[in-house]
Amino acid sequence: RSQANEEVELKLPTLHPGTAIEETGENSKNSLKHETSKQFAEEVLKVHNDYRKKHGVPPLKLCKKLNRGAQQYAEELATTRVLKHSSESANGNCGENLAWASYDQSGKDVADRWYSEIKNYSFQNPGFSSRTGHFTAMVWKNTKKMGVGKASASDGSTFVVARYDPAGNVVNPGYYEENVLPPRK
To answer: Domain for residue 109, yes or no?
Structure first.
């Protein structure tokens, strides 16, 4: 079976609720802040790997191709201001975690929020849940590489995309038991 994907479409607040945003002049796509600094990506990676170590799984490595795809998609999200998973993720080509905030997010903030879903995960009854999917993607044992993208919309809100290869959250029997290990004492 394929990767578990629950598509959640979240319309984010705009300056004029209920109307489309016209992006022209200073608020045009060209003025959006589209950069993922190497420092930001490395911070996200470090926090991932610190958590992965607690679960006894190998560290991830940054991948240029995944970084490019994550950055492109973060820019698309910042332009549309609709938080939904990409077709790349929906097709099972990669795993994907998304984050949005009305402020400039640090890499540690984002990764810590995703990991905090551990409180909702049952290691006694493992499996996919929309309440734990970010956490399980982060610590999925079989995942080897990741990419990170970050973009800011003209209103200052930020969108972060993390992509994983191979994708986690595979719902085949036994996969969660094999790939989402409890933290070591």
So the answer is: yes
Secondary structure (3-state) at 88: helix
43 within 8 A of 146, measured Cβ to Cβ: no
Give the C-alpha separation, 11 to 24, whole Å. 20
Residue 156 CA, chain-centre distance (Å), reads 19
Q: In whole angstroms, what is the distance from residue 97 CA to residue 89 CA?
A: 9
Count the Cβ atoms, other than its own, within 10 Å of residue 7. Answer: 8
- Whether 83 is covered by a domain: the verdict is yes
Average pLDDT over the chain, rounded to an integer: 85
Q: pLDDT per residue over 23-38, tens digit each? A: 333 333 444 444 568 8
What is the rounded CA–CA span in Å between residue 146 and residue 138?
Answer: 10
Residue of 184, 183, 145 lying closest to 41 (CA atoms): 145
* 74 inside domain: yes
- What Å distances lie between residue 9 and 83, 125, 166, 181, CA to CA? 6, 28, 24, 30
| Tokens 């589209």 belong to residue | 34
Q: What CATH number has the domain bearing residue 125? A: 3.40.33.10
Question: Do residues 149 and 77 touch, judged by C-beta distance below 8 A?
Answer: no
For residues 73 and 151, what is the distance between their CA atoms, to the nearest angstrom? 9
pTM to 2 decimal places? 0.82
CA separation for the pair 63, 86 (Å, rounded): 18
